[in-house]
């Protein structure tokens, strides 16, 4: 384990100075799941939610979240993202939808928080659009799957 980088000499939070870091291509991939009743799953799949196309709205919400992560996570740097993609993988057996966010930039700091924020917001949007028919939905297993670029190198979740 490395040192905590967001703590100053007085033990207080700080935004990390990345001015001496190399500019490199960076990518992060995160995922999460939302579980729901079979009826809710079927209505999402069949377009039967009155508020609209749930996954299309969740996709836009995830992209927007990635772009605005620095406004929600206090020590995140504002980044010029070069790519954000959200993919959804519905599972007919478990009545879950997996969301996977891939975020890219060329810069001095990574995009892990942007990918995690994108997945979280996409799943929360699914919840919001379907809560009138299924308040028991559960969001879980949000995690970083992969990151690359920068000094710490390539990480792949085992």
From TrEMBL:
Q: Which organism is it from?
A: Eubacterium oxidoreducens
Q: Which reactions appear under catalytic activity for this entry? A: (8S)-3',8-cyclo-7,8-dihydroguanosine 5'-triphosphate = cyclic pyranopterin phosphate + diphosphate
The UniProt keywords, alphabetically, are: Lyase, Molybdenum cofactor biosynthesis
> Do you know which SUPFAM superfamilies this protein is assigned to?
Molybdenum cofactor biosynthesis protein C, MoaC
Residues of the active site are 128
- What binding partners and quaternary form does the record give? Homohexamer; trimer of dimers.
Coiled-coil regions in this chain?
Answer: none
- Which Pfam families does the record associate with it? MoaC
The pathway where this protein functions is: Cofactor biosynthesis; molybdopterin biosynthesis
Query: At the top level of its lineage, which domain of life is listed?
Result: Bacteria
Q: What class of enzyme is it?
A: lyase
Give the GO biological process terms.
Mo-molybdopterin cofactor biosynthetic process
Limits of the Molybdopterin cofactor biosynthesis C (MoaC) domain: 15-150
One annotated GO molecular function is: cyclic pyranopterin monophosphate synthase activity
Protein family per UniProt: Belongs to the MoaC family.
- Enzyme Commission number: 4.6.1.17
What taxonomic classification does the UniProt entry list for its organism?
A: Bacteria, Bacillati, Bacillota, Clostridia, Eubacteriales
What name goes with this protein? Answer: Cyclic pyranopterin monophosphate synthase
Functionally, this protein is described as follows: Catalyzes the conversion of (8S)-3',8-cyclo-7,8-dihydroguanosine 5'-triphosphate to cyclic pyranopterin monophosphate (cPMP).
């Amino acid at each position: 384990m490395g040192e905590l980088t967001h703590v100053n000499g007085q033990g207080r939070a700080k935004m990390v100075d990345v001015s001496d870091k190399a500019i490199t291509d960076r990518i992060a991939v995160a995922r999460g799941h939302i579980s729901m009743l079979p009826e809710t799953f079927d209505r999402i799949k069949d377009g039967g939610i009155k508020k609209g196309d749930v996954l299309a709205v969740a996709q836009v919400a995830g992209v927007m979240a990635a772009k605005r992560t620095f406004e929600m996570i206090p020590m995140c740097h504002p980044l010029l993202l070069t790519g954000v993609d959200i993919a959804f993988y519905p599972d007919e057996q478990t009545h879950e939808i997996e969301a996977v966010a891939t975020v890219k930039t060329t810069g001095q700091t990574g995009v892990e928080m942007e990918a995690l924020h994108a997945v979280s917001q996409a799943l929360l949007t699914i919840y919001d659009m379907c809560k009138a028919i299924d308040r028991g939905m559960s969001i879980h297993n949000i995690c970083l799957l992969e990151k690359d670029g920068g000094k710490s190198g390539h990480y792949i979740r085992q």
